[in-house]
Amino acid sequence: MVAATAPAAMSDIIARCQNGDRSAFDTLYAAHRRQVAALLYRIVGPADMEDAIQDVFFEVWKSIGRFRAESKLSTWLHRLTVNVALRRLRTKKRKDPDAAGDPDLIPIGETPERALRRKMALRNVQRVLDEMPAKKRIVFVLHEVEGLDVAEIAEIVGAPRVTVRTRLHYARKEFYARVEKDPSFDPGFGGEGPYR
């Protein structure tokens, strides 16, 4: 895992990226790949995740020159990631949601039984998320999983805060209604959430 980069150091890395420095971009990629992968996993699913990660960082490389630090880098990255995810959802039919996920998302040191339960729980949650409309799924994942507040989500998805609150309300309602209706749904972990 990459150590957290200090804000001043990240500003320097961004400036170097904007000047075309490939090694700085490699550092940026290493620092943020896991965050982007986790978000994409929850939005597009594991089957399309690796290609989507490459799409996101291609967009980062193309767009970094326009980044002006008017928002946080993480917010800007979330926005790019969500845009790539939406584009993929619109243009490509979803593949098998039970395909193997990113091994980086499986915690090191888990017992085989716990790893299996976690994988099954992730599949159950992903199956429910896959059935939700993209706009609801995105605000749900950004708020409930990523822990972002409504203002940040509004900036990422380019919608008014009231719209985000409304989507989030209906997304929660839909998610939990689907979970309650599905007798095969098992969140696993004895009450722990699958993303904790």
Describe the fold and architecture.
The chain has 196 residues and is an all-alpha fold. It has two domains: 1-99, RNA polymerase sigma factor, region 2, helix turn helix motif (Rna Polymerase Sigma Factor, Chain: A, Orthogonal Bundle), CATH 1.10.1740; 110-196, Arc Repressor Mutant, subunit A, CATH 1.10.10.10. The chain has helices at 7-18, 22-44, 46-63, 73-91, 112-131, 134-145, 150-157, 161-181. It is globular, with a radius of gyration of 17 Å. The model is unreliable at 93-104 and 188-196 (pLDDT under 50).
CATH topology of the largest domain: Rna Polymerase Sigma Factor, Chain: A
DSSP, total strands: 0
Q: Architecture of the largest domain, CATH level 2?
A: Orthogonal Bundle
Number of helices: 8
Looking at the structure, what is the overall shape?
globular
CATH class of the largest domain: Mainly Alpha
Q: What would CATH call the homologous superfamily of the largest domain?
A: RNA polymerase sigma factor, region 2, helix turn helix motif
**Uncertain regions: pLDDT < 50 for 5+ in a row?**
93-104, 188-196
Largest sheet: none
Report the helical percentage: 55-70%
Mean pLDDT: 79
Beta content comes to under 5%
Q: Radius of gyration, rounded?
A: 17 Å
Order of helices and strands: HHHHHHHH
Number of domains: 2
The class by helix and strand makeup works out as mainly alpha
Q: Between the first and last Cα atoms, what is the distance in angstroms?
A: 17 Å
